[in-house]
Design goal:
The protein is an alpha+beta fold. It has a domain of 95 residues: Ribosomal protein S6/Translation elongation factor EF1B (Alpha-Beta Plaits), CATH 3.30.70.60. It is built from four helices and four strands. The chain has a four-stranded antiparallel sheet with strand order 2-3-1-4, covered by helices on one side. β2 and β3 form a beta hairpin. The protein starts with a strand and ends in a 24-residue tail after the last helix.
């Protein structure tokens, strides 16, 4: 027998007694297949990220159990056949305490709080590519300075007599 964890979403159209009946049906199947329930947690009614079978909400439930691997396929078949279960997932149990499941970690909460308090305007939407920048001309004062420098004759600096093997600052000896 192996340890497994299943998360399943029950349809929100059921009342609380209907949800309890569906959870009990899953638990009874696991027990009848020779397994045992080790932990249980009800997450409660939550909003779905996208509609599933025209439902925008669902009742989440988590079960941890031990079950023989040959009965696992039948459990998944039962999930698929049950119209009141919108989605399900069965994984091998990694040992994460159920108290921590569904809670944001401290770093995630801190990041979320810092995003909420960020100063400044909200982020801009992307409205397509920006137009090419226009050619910017130089201001008049800068242009006149550049023209004056070009017109004034300056004596070119004398060419250095330094060769490629001679370091700068040392004079050539003419011996």
């Amino acid at each position: 027998m192996r340890d497994y964890e299943t998360t399943f979403i029950v349809a929100p159209s059921l009342d609380s007694d209907g949800v309890i009946r569906e959870v009990e049906a899953v638990k009874n199947f696991i027990s009848s297949a020779g397994g045992e329930i080790t932990a249980e947690k009800e997450w409660g009614r939550r909003r779905l990220m996208y509609p599933i079978r025209d439902c925008s909400e669902g009742v989440y439930h988590i079960l941890r159990f031990r079950l023989a691997s040959d009965s696992l396929g039948e459990l998944e078949r039962q999930f698929r056949l049950n119209e009141n279960i919108l989605r399900h997932l069965v994984i091998r149990d990694e040992g994460t305490p159920l108290e921590h499941i569904g809670q944001a970690s401290e770093s995630e909460e801190r990041d979320r709080d810092s995003r909420d308090r960020r100063p400044g305007p909200p982020p801009r939407r992307f409205d397509g590519p920006k137009p090419a920048p226009s050619v910017v001309s130089k201001p008049a004062a800068v242009a006149s300075t550049a023209t004056a420098e070009a017109e004034s004759p300056e004596s070119p600096e004398p060419a250095s007599e330094e060769g490629p093997d001679q370091p700068a600052g040392e004079e050539k000896s003419s011996e």
